[in-house]
Amino acid sequence: AFVGYLKALLLFVSFFKKCVSFNETRAREIGHLLTPGRCKGIWRPDSLPGKCFGVNPIKEFLDLMDIKIYNYKQCRSLCCNLNERCTTWQYQNSSGTCFIQARAVRLGMEGSNTELWCDPFPPHTWNGYRIGERNNGLCTKGEELPNQCFGFGAEKMHPVTKARMNEKECEQMCCKDPTCDSWQEMPGRGCYYGQSGCHKGPIDGAYDGGRKCIPGFCGGLESKILKPKGTLVKDT
Predict the structure, then answer these.
(1) Which of 92, 175, 207, 233 has the most C-beta neighbours closer than 10 Å?
(2) Side-chain half-sphere exposure of 52, counting CA atoms within 13 A
(3) 10 Å Cβ neighbour count for 136?
(4) DSSP letters along 127-181, please?
(5) Share of the chain above pLDDT 90, in %
(6) Given CA atoms 203, 205, 208, 214 in this order, what sign does their dihedral have?
(7) How far is residue 195's CA from residue 150's CA, in Å, rounded to a whole number?
């Protein structure tokens, strides 16, 4: 019995040592990924304050899901040290989530050969509702839509004056359009309406984010941003 106990104990010790060795190795790997990298010379000067579509939380990557990110600097360093696996990063302060994407992402009205897109504006509360019921040219208000809806297309201008519409005008134009099921308006941003899937729940928290300057996808700033080959600078 003692011999059997001793063998079991030796197996446990061996297994424990392997676990410790693996954890130490993984800790070094994570430390390397979160160490400020060598990307200061290749970040584009613009920021990504609004919601980006196509970026993925790191918890969706099997080899990254155990990494804890506590601030935007760590998220940026992770993107830097992932090299070609990450060209775009975002950190949402309210949820503490780090998002990354390997492919190029366009910002706002940029003309780029990619379907991945970032809203150039930080999250704000919108005026807007779904259409409740239509009756003799009048519409009732349905569900309130404080979160920004996406998919409405370009801003809708007044059909007569061609001017930017206010909240009341936006509501009226949506009501008159039989294909419109929801509308939104914000002073300074204008009127949007049509058919769209709208995000429910609390307003998204603010984002920090950035993009690497990729040759051919840097807004013509390649020669100003990219350092000569072999130049190494610390990320900050």
Answers:
(1) 207
(2) 29
(3) 4
(4) EEEEEEEEETTEEEEEEE--SPPB-S-SPBBPTTT-SBP-HHHHHHHHHH-TT--
(5) 56
(6) negative
(7) 9
Virtual CA dihedral for 23, 28, 31, 32, nearest 10 degrees? -140
Greatest Cα-to-Cα distance within the chain, rounded to the nearest angstrom: 95
Supply the pTM of this predicted model.
0.75
CA distance 236 to 73: 8
CA–CA distance, 118 with 149 (Å, rounded to integer): 13
User: pLDDT, tens digit, for every residue of 179-225?
Assistant: 999 999 999 999 999 998 787 766 778 899 999 998 888 877 777 77
Name the one residue in this structure whose structure tokens are 């061609």. 162
Question: What's the rounded Cα separation, in Å, for the pair 190 and 209?
Answer: 25
**Which helix (H) or strand (E) covers residue 38, if one does?**
none
The C-alpha torsion from 40 through 41 and 47 to 48, rounded to 10°, is -80
Cα 196 to Cα 148, 158, 217, distances in angstroms: 10, 20, 30
- 106-140 residue pLDDT tens: 998 887 777 899 999 998 999 999 999 999 889 99
127-135, strands of its sheet edge to edge: 138-144, 127-135, 182-186, 190-194
User: Measured at the alpha carbon of residue 231, what is the angle toward residues 38 and 74, in degrees to the nearest 5?
Assistant: 5
For residue 36 the two structure tokens come to 């400020």
pLDDT tens digit sequence for 41-72: 789 999 999 999 999 999 999 999 999 999 99
DSSP code, position 34: H
Cβ atoms 232, 48 nearer than 8 A: no
